Amino acid sequence: MTRNLWTLAAVGALVAGCSGSDDTTNPSDVALAPGETTEQPNPDRNVYFGDLHIHTRNSFDAYIFNVRTTPEDAYKFGMGEGITHPSGYDLKLEGPALDFMAVTDHAAYLGHLPAMDTEGTEISKLEMAKDMFSADPDKIIAAFQLIGGAVRDGRKMEGVYDPKIISDVWKATVAAADKYYKPGKFTTFSAYEYTATRVTQGEGGGFAGGNLHRNVVFRDAAPDMPFGTLESSNPEDLWTWMDEQRAAGIDGISIPHNSNVSDGEMFKLETYNGQPLTKAYADQRMRNEPIVEITQVKGTSETHPSLSPNDEWADFGIYEYLLSSQIKSKTSSGDYVRQAYANGLMLEDKIGGNPYQFGLIGSTDTHVAGGSFDEKNFWSKIGVVDGTPESRGSVPPGGKKSWDGVTVDPRAASWFSRWGASGYAAVWAEENSREAIFDAMRRKETYATTGTRIKLRFFGGFDFDAAMLDDPEMVSKAYANGVAMGGDLLGAGKAPGFIVWAMRDAMSAPLQRVQIVKVWTDGGKTNEKVFDVACSDGGTVDPGTARCPDNGATVNLSDCSISTDKGAPELKTFWRDPEHKAGQRASYYVRVLENPVCRWSTWDAIRAGVPPNPALQKTIQERAWSSPIWYVPTKA
Amino acid sequence: MTNLKKILRDPIAHFVLIGLALVAINHFWNRYEGEQGRTITVSAAEIDRLSVLWANTAGRLPTGEDKQQIIDQYVQQEVLVREAERLGLGDDDTIIKRRLAQKMDFLVSGESTADNPSDAELEAWFDANRDKFAAPERRSFVHIYLSPEKHKNAIEKVAADALQNVQSGTDWKSLGDPFIQKRSYAAIPESEVTRLFGPDFASAIFKLPAGQWSAPIGSAFGLHLVRIEAIDDAAEASFEPIKAEVTTAWQEDQSAKAKQAALQELVRGYDVVIEGADE
């Protein structure tokens, strides 16, 4: 039912697109009068880049890391102003302003630490508060553990938990979002993080268990209080609350993140309480969780080399350990997006509903009120703990100039040094407004990048052909005769055709190749295959291997300069699935790969005049992932 | 003891440990700063405190032998800290210094609060700070894009032909290749053009005159023929429409000034000698 609604919405949108296309071109080509600042809505849609995962001083874990910047500071950062890192240096966006943002502080104990640290408040008089801000590290740890433990267990600590603090700080958060919302220019959303954790039992239990975190983002009106993990650690209860809010006119979506450290919990094949999944579950989940954050500082959740052995690019942003532990994460089930897509198709066959038909975004999860997207300029995310190259393991300790005999702090070795400068949420919307951007997220016309501003369009249709590629009306025709990323293609026989169009980030590297990842079900089995569909430098796809030749682009590790004569500014192609079978459900998403560039750790090392850490990867290929298009077989 | 195990397993504990190491260093630093002597006093109260901590970890009270070990460790730590101080290690530690300075900085900031200004006061301040609210030069332009992937070596010839066509009256919208971004941009500053097209293209089009088609200009994406439609010169702002924005800026300015004054007051208490500076 849900899906049909979105299909209808897409049809509605393309009708609008058609009527506009009677003119020679789309409305975005109409120049504005001088001085006019707001662009007209574009039915062919513009791409906007944002960050929907930002923590400030109001998050308990940011405050203890010495973060003092506020939601207002976060919005200023997003608009291009400088803010201060807790280690004392200035943070500023490398690129230009963001188009949209949401501050997502932990709802659990929201604002409690700042209140404990403010003289005169009731909560500052608690013994726990005195310990938390004492000079005794043991006391600080003990006090902080009480809060950390209560968040983990979803417990309201008597005498500490104060709904008035949460309500006040939440109101201020909403007010900051409203204050900085500049329709047409800069969109902000009221939002928070729902920080639920599944505590696993036995060896390696405790916090290391399943991460069920979500960011809850409201379209416009915001509730009086956030529904956090202290209300319930079961995400299904969150969705029920969101359904109630929606009925009362407060629309929101929840965006899961870091499924890579969920210990198999995020996309598992039963409910929170171990019951079989049903169509009602699938509908409720999709109504509330249309998109998933696939990449951020704490790793990338696309797939794992052990799940996708035939994907040469699977080993990217893998954060091997469960949150803050030495336990390797499970890869067998429930952690990775590609596998969830496959399982979703299976469920659709089995229960008539697909709880995992989500689109994709990226974001940062910064805990210092400003995201570091750029490899050249990375400040990681947890304040004084990883604010210097040395503390994140990219530069040897103690001013040493060599890595000989150096043992890196295990925390840096297992966590901080494996994290990444990532990522962006990209949306295709008619204009830069709350309504347009939120609705784009609802219909999943979104994609994720690892911190680069690759432009990516992806359309599917049964009547597409290669001639469309050079048609100036291609985009409006694609909307009119097919669907964009995030949509469904309902068909009974014909193989779907796809148009992929990617353009490089002017400030990053040229493109190397464009791929389509196909996931499908086949007699109760799930399958996946990566097809290269467009190659740079005049290369052609080998039909046997479905791969482009290597374009030979290189990175000079002494100064991070890159090949200037390799790679493409844009790649555009039409592709029809050569292995299509009419009765098989399938999902198709695009992955765009840039030429390699230096990883942040290499930049850190070069600036410090030391060799890069030999244990770390020296270069990376920045990338973008589109939301999928689903082929849904219908009875002929 | 299960609580303790939980704490040790708990990740936030791990995260915070590193931060706490810094806190600990400061702590010991403060305590021993200025202490010159070579006497280490281990008070009975300190032994008790350490014993309790020890018991928390070990799960039993320390025996006489354990206590000796606790005292030995304490003494060793003291010696190391004092020797480090003697060597001046902390003096060079930028992190410690920065952290202390930052803490102080917050204390100083907390003292400054800005009142509500009168309209006249605000407008006077706005007059004195007009440049802060001025808009940079912005340009509106349309462009014809030519894709290097499509035209390869022939691209310059194709661009020259397109230029001739558009100059002799062909509708610009019918020329060139589809562009994934927009083909017309309204009133955007050079910084924004840099982000969208790269620095070379941005600086080139901000030198063009309005109203005529340019020779081909290169960007990160290929070649473009550009026509500047309008130039909005860098403009002064007027007070009334942006009063709210001015108020916010005024408050920030006041609080920055108050903080600066407090800082100056502290600095006045010191004699600053800069070695090697010209007399």
What is this structure, in a nutshell?
Chain A is α+β, with helices and mostly antiparallel strands. Chain A has 14 helices and 27 strands.
List the helices and strands and how they pair.
The complex is a heterodimer of chains A (636) and B (279).
Chain A: H1 2-20, E1 46-54, H2 60-64, H3 71-78, E2 83-84, E3 90-91, E4 100-103, H4 112-116, H5 127-132, H6 137-153, H7 163-180, E5 187-189, E6 191-194, E7 197-200, E8 206-211, E9 214-218, H8 235-247, E10 252-256, H9 279-288, E11 291-296, E12 299-300, H10 337-351, E13 359-362, H11 410-414, E14 424-429, H12 434-442, E15 446-449, E16 455-461, H13 474-481, E17 483-484, E18 488-491, E19 497-503, E20 511-522, E21 525-535, E22 570-576, E23 586-594, E24 597-598, H14 600-608, E25 619-620, E26 623-626, E27 629-633
Parallel strand pairs in A: 1-4, 4-5, 11-13, 18-27
Antiparallel strand pairs in A: 1-14, 2-3, 6-9, 7-8, 9-10, 11-12, 14-15, 15-26, 16-17, 16-19, 19-22, 20-21, 20-23, 23-26, 23-27, 24-25
Helix pairs in contact in A: 1-13, 3-7, 8-9
Chain B: H1 2-9, H2 11-32, H3 44-58, H4 64-86, H5 94-110, H6 119-128, H7 130-133, E1 138-146, H8 148-151, H9 155-167, E2 184-189, H10 190-197, H11 199-205, E3 217-218, E4 223-232, H12 243-268
Antiparallel strand pairs in B: 1-2, 1-4, 3-4
